[in-house]
Task: structure prediction
Amino acid sequence: MPPFAAVDVRELIRPLGQLLLFSLGSAVVLSALVLVLALILDQTAVGPHVQARYNVSLATYTLANLPQVVIDGLTIGFVYAAIALGYTMVYGVLEFINFAHSEIFAVGAFVGVEILIGLDRSGILRSASLGMAYAYLTLAIVMGMAAAGALAVTVERVAYRPLRGAPRLVPLISAIGVSFLLQDLIRLVEGLTTGQFNRIMPTFGNFDRRLFLGRFALGDANIALGISVKSIIVITAAVLMLVGLNYLVNATRIGKAIRAVAQDRATASLMGINVNRIISLTFLVGGLLGGAAGVLYALKFSRIDPFVGFFPGLKAFTAAVLGGIGNLTGALLGGIVLGMLETFAGSYLGVFTMGAAGSEYKDIFAFSILILVLVFRPQGLMGQQVGQKA
Amino acid sequence: MPDRCRATWFRTLTPGIVPSLLILAHIGLGSALVYVAPRSNLAFLVLISSLFSLYIFKADRRFKLITGAVLALLIIPVIGVRNIFYLEVIFQISVFAALALGLNIVVGFAGLLDLGYVAFYAVGAYLWAFFGSQQYFALAFAPGTQPSNLPFLLPGDAFYLFLALAIIVAALTGILLGLPVLRLRGDYLAIVTLGFGEVIRVLANNLDKPLNLTNGPQGITPIQRPTMPDWAVDGFHTLFGPWIGHKVSPADMYNLLFYLLALLVILVIVLVTRRLDDSKIGRAWTAVREDETAAIAMGIPLVRMKLAAFAVGASFAGIMGVLLAASRTFISPESFSFMQSIGVLAMVILGGSGSIPGVILGAAVVTILNLQVLQGFSLYLSELRQSSVVIPLINFAWKDLSTQLDPAKYQRLLFGLILILMMIFRPSGLIPAKRRRRQLADDDRPAAE
Result:
C-alpha cells in the first residue's frame, strides 16, 4: 500500500454508522426501560410522592426529563469513549492496564485550561470574535493533546519499558505508582505557579448558550427541548477523534503495524516492524486522545483539580472492559452505554427510590457494572473469548 | 546481601558474645539518646533501628527473643509514655505493620493484587464504631440533629469481644467479595478490588439516610474505649514514675494499651503467617502465585485457596479497624481512601512482598518518612517562609513560596516514587522473601511473558 493511498471512504462511514447505532440503540433501550419502570412504580407509593412534590405523575416526570438525560448521557459517554480508547489500545498491544492514563487525561485538562486562563487574563478572550473563540478552544485542545501525548510516551519509556517481560503485576504496580506520582506532580506545579489546585475554565465564546430545538406540551407540563453549545462541541470533537482513530488503525500502514504487534509481537518484529516504535506510537495516540478528552471534560464541567482524572479514568476503564478490552469498536460502545447508564441512574435513582438513594451512588454504579461484566461476561459485549497468553 | 555477609563475617570472626553485645550497645545507645534528647528525631531513629540490628546480627535465639521483649514491652513503653509523640509514631508503625502483614498474605503469598485492602479495615472500624457508640440510638436522626444525651449501646469492654467478632465479619466480607471476583485474572482483580474499596467508602459517606448508619462524611464520634482500671495507671506510675518524669495519666495508658494490642496482633499475624507458609495452604498459595495453570493441573482448588488468602488477609485488617476506632474514638470515611490502600501496598512492596521482616521494615520506613521526614520538611519550609532568606542566583525569597506547598501532604508522591523505583530496580524488595531468594539463586533469568 503506498503511503498516500486513496481515502478509504468505507472506513470513514462505518464508525459513524456504528456510533449512531450505539447512541440510538442505548438511548431507546434505556428510555424504554425507565418508562416501564416509571409506569410500574406509579402504582406504588412512589407515584403519590412524586405527584405531591412535582405535581405531575411519575411517568410524565420521567418522560419530561428524558431528552435532557439522553443528551447529557451522550456527552459524557463520548468523553468516556475517547478515554477508553487509550486504555483499550494499550491493552490490545501490551495486555497491560495503563493505570496512569487517568492522570494523562488530567494533565491534558490542566494544560488546556491553563492556556485558556492565561489568554483570559491578558484580555484576549473577552475581545475575541466568535471565530477566534473557537480557534482558541482548538488551540487549547491541541496543546492539551500534545502535552498528554508527550507525557504518555515519556511514561512508557521511563516506567514501563524497563519492565517489559516481567510478570503481569509488576508493570501494573509501576503504573499505579506513576498515577500517584503524577497527581502530586500536578499539585506541586500548580501549587508553586498559581498557588491553587482547583482551576476553573474561563467562560468565553458562545459555549454556554443553549440552542432551543423545540417545545412540546405533555399533559400539564411544558417541556423545552434544548442542547448547550458545549455539548455539541464535545460530541462533535469526540466523534471526529473516534473516526480519525478508527481510520488510523484500520486503513493505514501504521494501523496495520499496530494490529500486527497486538496480535503477535515476536512475529511482527520478524516482519520488520519496529515493535518499540509501534508501542511508543500506541501510547502517543492514546495520550493524544486522553489529552483532548481532558480539555473537553474541562469544557463540559468547568472545574478541574489534580485528582480530576481518577473517576473518569476508572469509568473509562470500565467502559473499555464493558465493550471488550482491546477492541476499538467495543470501547466506543462501552463508553456510550456507560455514560448513558450512569446519567440515567443519576437522574432517576433519587426519584424512583423517594430520595433514599440518589445521584451520590452514580460513581459506584459504574463499579457495580464493572464487577457484573467481569463476572458474567469477562470478554465484554463485543470481545471474543481469548485465552490467557502463557 | 551485604547485611547478611556482615552478619556471617561477625559470626565467623568473633563467635559467641560479640553480636549480642553489639545489639545491646545499639539498644542502650538508642535508649540513652532518646532519654536525654526527647525531641530529637535522630535519637528516635537510632532506637527504632535497633530492632533492625536485632534482626540482622546472628545471636542466640533465646537472647534475641528476650532482648526483643524487653525492648518492646519495657523500654519503648517507658520512653513512649515519657514522650507521647514517640508512642504515637510507634503505634502508627505497629498499626501499619499489622495492616501490611495482612496485605502481605494476599499480595505476597497468594499473588493477588488487592487495591482495596482498607475496605476491610473500614469494615472493622465501622463495626465497632456503630456498636461502641451512640449511633444505634441516632439511627432515626439526620447527621448533626441527634440529641447529645443518647445512651451508649454497649459497655466499652465489649471492645474485646468485637476484636474477635471483627475477624469473622471481615473474613465474611472478604469471602463475599472474593466469591464472584476471584476467578478473574490478576490485573482485573486489582481493578475490581479498587472498585470495591471505593464502594465501601462511598457507602460510608452516604449511608446516613434513609437510616443514619454511618453518620455520613462527619463520621462517628465518640467511640468507646475499654475501661482502664485505676490500679493499672497507679501501678505503672509507681513502677516507672521516676524515669517518666511526669504524672502518668489514663490517656497515656490508653495509648500504651493500644500499642500493646497492636503488637499482639502483629505477633499473631507473624505466627499464623509462618505456620501457614510452611503448611499445605502456604505451598498452594505459592503455587498459585507462581503459575496458576500449573497449580490447577496439580489439583490445587484455585478459588478456595484464593478465598482463604482473601479471608485471612481481610480478618487481620478487620481487627486493626476495631483497634483504630477505639484508639481514635472517631472515624470518618476519609481515613479509608484509595490512598491508604496504596500506602499499605507501598509498604509491602518496599519491604519485599512475601517477606515478614521485610514488610515490617517497609511499614516502619514508610510511616517514618510520612510522619517525621515529610512533616519535618514541612516545618522547615514554614520556618524558611517566616525568615527573610533569599535563594541566591535566582533571587527567590522563601517568604514568597506558596503556602499551598506543604510537603506533609505529598504522600502520593512518596508512595508513587516507592512503587516505581522498587518495581524497576528491586522488585523483590529491601529484604527479599527467603523462598524467592533461593529461586533467584539457581535461576537468574527473568520470568517468561
User: Anything to note?
Assistant: Residues 350 and 426 of chain B are 9 Å apart (CA to CA).
